[in-house]
Amino acid sequence: MTVETPLDRLAEAIPDGAKLAIPADYAGVSMAMVGPLLRRGARDLHLVCVPTSGIQADLLIGAGAVATVETSAVTLGEAGGAPAFGRAVRSGAVRVLDATCPAIHAGLIAAQKGAPFLPMRGLIGSDILANRPDWRVIDNPFADAGDPVVLIPAIVPDVALFHAPAADRFGNVAIGRRRELATMAYAARRTIVTVERILDTDLMADEASAAGTLPALYVDGIGLAPGGAAPLALWGEYETDVAAVKAYAAAARSPEALAAYIDALMGRVPA
């Protein structure tokens, strides 16, 4: 694996129609890859939000790059709803696979373990089951009497994409306590990571850092992108630029203003 790859090259490794796993806004979103994906002309993506998403999903949807969204929610948090997502749902431009946070994680964990499904109880009695015919309800085969459980099929992303503080020259990636990023990588066929910096040290050689490191075995591409999660936060590095998120929310309410925002984004994100 080449330790550092230009972002436009990494975007080419995310094909049209790919099932693309992306993390929640607090967990290391690779905003740096949005511009390269749109410059590539990405289409028909199936976003798997782990377990929610915000500005990244909304931008990709607003640019017409997304066909399906599998998520618990798409929201801009304190900046309000996700305008492009809302318009796409109302118009039918995207298909929504409604989920819950535990169900998203259950599907990824099943894939990580090589299992076809994982059982859950918490969904019994909820309306969401009516909207997910691919989820099955069976009786617990180990119970003496009726004991229904829901089977969540394994979610196998084609690509997991996220941003992290650092990688080392061996291809290991520092993810700290964000274990959901490891689950995404273990479940996915390929993993692409953008990072703030690349270190000369070996993150796996030190017990203090190894526990919070995703081994290079699970990483297929790394791009150097300082500030690559902005305007969102990156743990231990920088906070959310609230004004920038609000500015996006205001622009995204108008399709014309959103188009101008996307044009500017595509021109200013470095490859």
Tell me what you see in this structure.
Helices cover 30% and strands 23% of the residues. The strands form two sheets. Strands 1, 2, 3, 4, 8, 9, 10, 11 and 12 form a nine-stranded mixed beta sheet that branches. It has a three-stranded antiparallel beta sheet with strand order 5-7-6, with helices on one face. The two termini are 19 Å apart. The radius of gyration is 19 Å and the shape is globular. Helix 3 links the parallel strand 2 and strand 3.
By DSSP (H or I, 4+ residues per run), the number of helices equals 9
Shape verdict? globular
**Average pLDDT figure:** 95
Structural class: alpha/beta
**Secondary-structure element pattern, one letter each:** HEHEHEHEHEEEEEHEHEEHH
Please report the distance between the alpha carbons of the first and last residues: 19 Å
- Give the domain tally: 2
CATH fold field value of the largest domain: Glutaconate Coenzyme A-transferase
Beta-strand fraction estimate: 15-25%
Main pleated-sheet profile: 9 strands, mixed
CATH superfamily of the largest domain: Glutaconate Coenzyme A-transferase
In brief:
Helices cover 30% and strands 23% of the residues.
Protein traits:
2 domains, 9-stranded mixed β-sheet, 271 residues, Glutaconate Coenzyme A-transferase, alpha/beta, globular, 3-stranded antiparallel β-sheet
Topology of this structure?
Elements: H1 7-12, E1 19-23, H2 34-40, E2 45-50, H3 55-62, E3 66-71, H4 83-91, E4 95-98, H5 101-112, E5 117-120, E6 136-139, E7 148-153, E8 159-168, E9 173-174, H6 179-187, E10 190-199, H7 207-210, E11 213-214, E12 221-224, H8 242-252, H9 255-268
Parallel strand pairs: 1-2, 1-8, 2-3, 3-4, 8-10, 10-12
Antiparallel strand pairs: 5-7, 6-7, 8-9, 9-11
